[in-house]
Automatic annotation (TrEMBL):
The protein, known as: Threonine dehydratase
EC code: 4.3.1.19
Reported cofactor(s): pyridoxal 5'-phosphate
Keywords from the named record: Amino-acid biosynthesis, Branched-chain amino acid biosynthesis, Chloroplast, Isoleucine biosynthesis, Lyase, Membrane, Plastid, Pyridoxal phosphate, Repeat, Transmembrane, Transmembrane helix
Subcellular compartments: Plastid, Chloroplast
SUPFAM superfamilies for this protein: ACT-like, Tryptophan synthase beta subunit-like PLP-dependent enzymes
Reactions accelerated catalytically: L-threonine = 2-oxobutanoate + NH4(+)
Annotated TM spans: 12-31
Amino acid sequence: MEIVRQMKGPVHAIFVPVGGGGLIAGIAAYVKRVSPDIKIIGVEPYDANAMALSLYHGQRVMLDQVGGFADGVAVKVVGEETFSLCRALIDGIVLVGRDAICASIKDMFEEKRSILEPAGALALAGAEAYCKYYGLNGENVIAVASGANMNFDRLRLVTELADVGRQREAVLATYMPEEHGSFKRFCELVGPMNITEFKYRYNSDKERALVLYSVGLHTKSELEAMIERMKSAQLQTINLTNNDLVKDHLRHLMGGRSNVKDELLCRFVFPERPGALMKFLDALSPRWNISLFHYRGQGETGANVLVGILVARTEMNEFLDRANSLGYEYELESNNEAFQLLMR
């Protein structure tokens, strides 16, 4: 009733998050009576799609498992009466993934400084997917933002996945040879793409290293061109952007213990600006081999970067001179108890 009374001009569609079906059944029952031309479209997560499956099969379907990320709509079976109403009245269901939900949470925060819960951002993600798929332009669409019951701890995951959901970040893995200068060559092949995360650990038992990294601010063609450059240089590259296991767990477990001779562990503060990484590599590589590199951009003025470099004792003064000439803040961490405990 509020939508019909307050919205000026024609409405193409109303997008509603769907759990058990009560909210969308009520909206559809009223709107279809007073404005039957308005489309009523439900939105569900891929892993909690009880209504979509029930409508497809013509009867209520009970899910074996339900994804809990959008916990406000995480139901195994829709209501009997709500299913009957939805079957008669609604115009369809849009399914969206977790990354798209996170992207919509971020969009709402940046636009209105409001923080939605995943179920509250569901309709917004569905509306965007629908408009993009059908090329909708110049139409009024409404998304019901149904809740803001956000768990603060969950915000960390939302920030990790939001840029992936908007295709502003891609997660990749590349094999490169374990030899001096290979990291610098790799960065040159990345070219204008902005590296937002990089994880690598030296392993003397292998001829090739597998590095896990993310690149940001890309278009599909830019990303494909970068991957092609890697393959042309014989650096096998795998796109892992849609792999939830990598994004949730494996990106944090990459590397691990490795006993490397002459390894010097340093923490550098890189300025968050283009060319900062290449300036670092020009100063130190290929003079010394890099054995560990961990970086995650956080949108701050300076980025903390953990670096392992193979520096013999006799070369220490030369290394310090070059490190000081960079003008970056840094600290030697080889004697840190945590490094000795976890990485050796």
